[in-house]
Amino acid sequence: MKILILCSGGDAPGMNRFIYNLSKFNEVYYARAGFKGLVEGDIFPLDKNEAKKFKDEAGAIILSSRYPKFQERKYFFKGVKNAKDFDAVIVLGGNGSFHGAKELAENEVNAIFVPATIDNDVENSSYSIGFDSAVSQGVYAVKNSMPSINAFCQACLFEVMGRKCSEIAKEVSKQVSADYTICEEKDLKFKAIEKLIKERRNKFLGTSIIVRENIMPISEIAERLNNSFKEEVVKTQVVGRLQRGGKPTNKELSLVNKFSDAVISLVKSKNFNKQVLMDENYNIKILDF
């Protein structure tokens, strides 16, 4: 059976383990840089030795990209034509990637979608590949920065990824017992945050504040807060790509194995045009597009 794999959107730790697990099929190909490669015909046999070498690393050895042109008919149908050379096309990505896979399925391509985005915001799935690892790196950044912040009774704004979804911010905040969390614009209560920092400084304590990206640049938040102090008390740290590039956690790899086992089963039984998702108990659930 001739299988094609592609990664679309942001990379997520665990993608490489999934790719390695699927490399066990006899004929496995990949579209380099996702839908872009599918459209442009940049399709190559998967090197199984390379897949094995990087199976426990972050990133995407077959590359990924955001490719808005795929929504345009002339590019989309080039992709459809190339996709039909394969018995199955497996798409890893977020909500945009899901819609791309769904459209392929609606145009007689045997497609399977797997949620893989650190934001954990894929519709109908309680978990997506990359989330646990992204949270782990956020926790690592906070825990390894706060001792120095505490030593000076300062405050630190830790900006975590998530685009418009606050799942990472909430979970990191929970695991580190953060002093304040900014998940939405409504949480930017400057007077309350200033009061909190001052109260903790009076007790000779530092203050940890988790901020979801894309609300307000943390440099601007820090500047406004520092105006209330005679010195620079509020520091900033962008966790950012550390959350994408950090090594996948053991839990992540275990969940990836569940996803890939389900996909392998679907392909072997020729049961296509499915979403392979996960419920709140980390059990696989399979839905039609």
The total of helices stands at 12
Care to count the β-strands?
A: 11
Q: State the oligomer.
A: single chain
CATH topological fold name of the largest domain: Rossmann fold
Shape: elongated
Content-based structural category: alpha/beta
Mean pLDDT: 97
* Distance between the first and last residues' Cα: 22 Å
What's the helix-strand series?
EHEHEHHEHEHHEHEHEHEHHEE
Unreliable stretches (pLDDT < 50, length at least 5) are: none
Q: Which band does the percent of strand residues land in?
A: 15-25%
Helix content: 40-55%
Based on the structure given, which CATH architecture of the largest domain is correct? 3-Layer(aba) Sandwich
Count of separate structural domains: 2
Computed CA radius of gyration, to the nearest angstrom:
21 Å
Describe the largest sheet: 7 strands, mixed
Describe the structure.
This protein is an alpha/beta fold and 289 residues long. It folds into two domains: 2-130 and 248-288, Rossmann fold; 132-245, Rossmann fold (3-Layer(aba) Sandwich). Helices cover 40% and strands 19% of the residues. The protein contains twelve helices and eleven strands. The chain has helices at 15-22, 35-40, 48-53, 73-83, 95-106, 131-143, 146-151, 167-176, 190-202, 218-226, 242-245, 250-268, and strands at 2-7, 27-31, 43-45, 88-93, 111-115, 155-160, 180-182, 207-212, 234-238, 274-278, 284-288. Strands 3-2-1-4-5-10-11 form a seven-stranded mixed sheet, sandwiched between helices. Strand 1 (2-7), helix 1 (15-22) and strand 2 form a beta-alpha-beta unit. Helix 1 (15-22) runs parallel beside helix 12 and helix 6 (131-143) crosses helix 8.
